[in-house]
Design goal:
This is MARVEL domain-containing protein. The chain has 220 residues and is an all-alpha fold. The chain has one domain. The protein contains seven helices and no strands.
Length: 220
C-alpha cells in the first residue's frame, strides 16, 4: 500500500466527473480545507494580537523602569516579568507556525507529498497547542504568588489612578488581560485545528485510495 503512487489532481477530478460518490468526498475535502485555512488565519491573528499587547507592555516597562540608585519608582522593587515574557515567546512561536501553515496550504508540491503532508498537518497545530498551554500554565503558576507582583497584578491594582504619561495603568491592565485571555482562547482553537487536520487527512487518504482502487486491474 505504501508503494502506491498517489493520484494526481487531474486524475482525481477526471474520475470525479464520472463518480457521484467521489464528487461528494471532494466537496467534503474542499469544505474542510477552507475551514482549516480559516482556523489557521484566526490563530495567526490571535497570536499576533497576544504578541503585540504583551511586547508593548514589556516595552513600556523597559522605558519607565527605575535606573540603578533611583529613590522614586513607579514599579515595585520585587517584580516578576517572566509571565509576560512567556506570553511573548509563546505567541511568537504560534505566529511563526501559523505563517508556515499558510505557506504550506498554498504550495501545491507540499500538499501532494504524503510524508510532508502528514508531518506538517499534525506537527504545526500540535506545537502551537503546546506553546499556548505552556505559556498559560506558566503565566498562572507565577501570577498566583502573593509575595511578588507581576504586570497583571501591579497594573490592575493601580488602574483607577489616572496617568497622563506612561505607564498608563488602566491601558496596561487591559493589555495584560487581553494577552492572557486570548492565549487561553488559543488552546481550544489549536486543539480544534489538530482534530480538523486528522479528519482532513483521513478524507484525503480515502479519496486517494478510492481513485487507486478504481484504476486497479483487478477491479477493471
Amino acid at each position: 500500500m505504501s508503494s502506491e503512487k498517489a493520484p494526481s489532481t487531474s486524475e482525481i477530478f477526471e474520475d470525479a466527473s464520472r463518480d457521484k460518490h467521489l464528487q461528494n468526498k471532494l466537496r467534503t475535502v474542499r469544505i474542510l480545507d477552507s475551514v482549516q485555512t480559516a482556523i489557521t488565519l484566526l490563530g495567526l491573528l490571535m497570536g499576533l494580537t497576544v504578541l503585540g499587547v504583551s511586547a508593548n507592555t514589556l516595552s513600556v516597562y523597559d522605558s519607565t523602569k527605575p535606573l540603578p540608585g533611583s529613590f522614586l519608582s513607579l514599579w515595585p522593587q520585587e517584580f516578576n516579568i517572566r509571565p509576560t515574557v512567556a506570553l511573548v515567546a509563546g505567541s511568537a512561536i504560534i505566529t511563526v507556525l501559523h505563517m508556515v501553515a499558510l505557506v504550506f496550504a498554498k504550495v501545491q508540491f507540499l500538499r501532494t507529498t504524503s510524508t510532508v503532508q502528514v508531518s506538517l498537518s499534525f506537527a504545526l497545530p500540535f506545537f502551537s497547542l503546546v506553546a499556548a498551554l505552556i505559556a498559560v500554565i506558566f503565566f498562572y503558576s507565577v501570577n498566583a504568588s502573593d509575595s511578588v507582583d507581576t504586570f497583571l497584578s501591579w497594573t490592575c491594582r493601580w488602574r483607577a489612578i489616572p496617568m497622563w504619561t506612561q505607564p498608563n495603568w488602566g491601558t496596561l491592565c487591559k493589555q495584560s488581560k487581553a494577552g492572557i485571555y486570548l492565549s487561553i482562547l488559543l488552546i481550544p482553537v489549536e486543539a480544534g485545528a489538530l482534530a480538523l487536520s486528522g479528519w482532513l487527512l483521513k478524507e484525503r487518504n480515502y479519496v486517494e485510495r478510492y481513485v487507486n482502487a478504481r484504476k486497479s486491474p483487478a477491479l477493471s
